Amino acid sequence: MIDWEAMRKLALLIGVSEYEPDLTSLPAARKDVEAVKQVLEHPDMGEFSEVRCLINPDTQEMQVAIETVFSNSTRDDLILLYFSGHGIKDESGRLYLATRRTRKNSQGELIRSTAVTASFVQENMSKSRSKRQVIVLDCCFSGAFAEGLLAKDDGSIDIRSQLGGEDLGREGRAVLTSSTSTQYSFENKSNLSIYTEYIVEGISTGAADLDGDSVISIDELHEYARRKVQEAAPAMKPEIYAVKQGYRIFLAKAPIGDPRLRYRKEVENCAIRGEISPTGRRMLDYVRETLGLETTETSVIEDEVLKPYREYNQNLQQYEQALVEAVQQEYPFSEYTLNELSRYQKILRLRNEDVAPIKERIAQQQQAIQLTGDSRSVKLTSGEDNHSALRSITLPIIPSVDSIVNLLRSRINYLLLAGSVVIGVLVVLVVTNYSRLPASNKVATKDVSLLYTLSEHSSPVSSVAITPNGQTLASGSHDKAIRLWNLSSGKTARSPLYGHKDPVLSIAISPNGHLLASGGLDNSIKLWDLSTKENNRTLEGHVGWVTAVAISSDGKILASGSSDNTIKLWEIATGTPIHTLFNQAPILAVTISPDNQILASSSTDKTVKLWDLSTGKLLRALEGHASWVDAIAISPNGQILASGSLDKTIKLWELGTGRLLRTLEGHKYSVSSIAISPDGQILISGGFDGEIRTWNLQKGSLIRAFKAHSAQVVSLAISKDEKILVSGSADSTIKTWHIKF
């Protein structure tokens, strides 16, 4: 625990809202300082002993204040320097913090003596005795200087070299920035700068306590603010740079057992892109009643959580309206109009990929008008009428296959965000849809024989695993049970293992076969002794569903992935959490390389990420899939990673370099599960249509395909002797197969 009494916490908050005519004013800066001051001084939040505010200082005033706060500190002090205002780069790439007197000369060059250089800040940080230092820069790097002054600028700010330092004797230093490039960082509709708004929200509500340990660390605060900023303004890319233990500097306290915080977490779990499903609404109503909260309180919380999504959608609508109006004036566009649209896109903080669908839609609409030769045939307006008009003229009939896939994709949203009721509904709908699907073309299915169909589970089977000795099969299900089976006979070995309050979503067995780990919809992980069939330990810390678990080959580390966008690494012997890894979206699968060097995860963000298992550091992100990556597996030699996606493809990657080796195509529907044979020669994949395919891993060629289940193949496992393949399905059955590999 942190000794809050012994830690002296000092802050200098600088806001510059008024500038010389060369720079635009930033009214939000003054309000930013006031808002940050409130949460830092609050006894139940930041509990800072000294907070000094400096509004619109000149250069000397700012320098004196910065030097004073760092020089007057002791070793155990935590020093926070916050700046809201313009950040400027000169022609040499050096970063400056603008003061109210900052200006440029007649040649348009920065008069350096009118601004505070980052090197001055770094020098004072290095001289300070404090071993905990935090810098927060909510800067508009794209101020009035950007176009004229930065003609040779590549758009990036090297914060690490200019403020990071190499202070090996310090406990830690962290620098947080709202933007690292020449991007707009304007005030939000709340009258605060957008990054500051979510920093304040994360502390004041406790929502930034991502790991639920009742304290908010710098990395948690930044991660919370970054997520929120990118939900509202995807073009902005807040970053954190840390030296040594800077990531783990504890900045504030979070409320313990606050029902409002728990409700907020539930809303965040139920909201995807600003929408709450009908079932999600029922869940939230139930949670509200359970926690004893008033609807007035929960409505405010929901508005806060959904606000960034709504602002993003509003910005899209505003851009579309501007584009429609521009098309009405002239088409094709002049260079002037293109520049104006580009500037407006930046002001709205939208990326090219955000506006691309709008541009394509309007362009198609305009082409349709030109083809008909009658501009009156379509009324160019933004919104639903515009979309309907476009569909009626330009869009082809959607193939039934795509319709089904899109329908299933929407149901997966429900599966991740709603409760066990939806899971049951999902199974019925999936079975109904796929009962009408045409039979797949079979390839060499004579080498496949069904051994047993295990039907003891009363709900969808979520995960299957086989003990290393090949004698026992374990299965987890949405019926909350974990069942153990004799793999040879197909008989239930013993009574089910019950412990989870909600559906079991994932299981894994240790290399020695003595321990089983399970993750559930109840946000918990349970460790079971397979010899006694007892639950030895429950690991808690996730604030969302535990969707995936994996155990290292030495049996020492457990990795758990969750819908709360995090991966946690645990020491199995003690149940102690080691690292929390932050992702941008819910985790769908995790696996660990045979040499225990790399942890791989997949997510709804369409990526596979590789992490250093010992440090928790992100090594690289593998991008290439067009939709959610639902399943991953690593070959026994640790050289190849396979990933299966809702985009119907399997991708093979070189694990050491992240290089894409090949893409396997053939599944007619989403790929929902994959496994690799113990000899590393065969890849097995399961699909949403209940089909199983086997592939030559080295050549990427299809060996066989056969219909295995009446619904999605959720999980696959292969015995070490390669004699038996096990498939678990959303049709509530498990099947064991003899396949000639």
Automatic annotation (TrEMBL):
Keywords: Membrane, Repeat, Transmembrane, Transmembrane helix, WD repeat. SUPFAM superfamilies: Caspase-like (SSF52129), WD40 repeat-like (SSF50978). Coiled coil: none annotated. It comes from Scytonema hofmannii PCC 7110. PROSITE patterns: WD_REPEATS_1, WD_REPEATS_2, WD_REPEATS_REGION. The chain crosses the membrane at residues 414-434. It comes from the Bacteria. This is Peptidase C14 caspase domain-containing protein. One of its GO terms (molecular function) is cysteine-type endopeptidase activity. Residues 8-241 form the Peptidase C14 caspase domain. CDD domains: WD40. WD repeats lie at residues 454-495, 497-538, 539-580, 580-621, 622-663, 664-705, 706-741. GO terms for biological process: proteolysis. PANTHER family: TRANSCRIPTION INITIATION FACTOR TFIID, TRANSCRIPTION INITIATION FACTOR TFIID SUBUNIT 5. It holds the Pfam family Peptidase_C14.
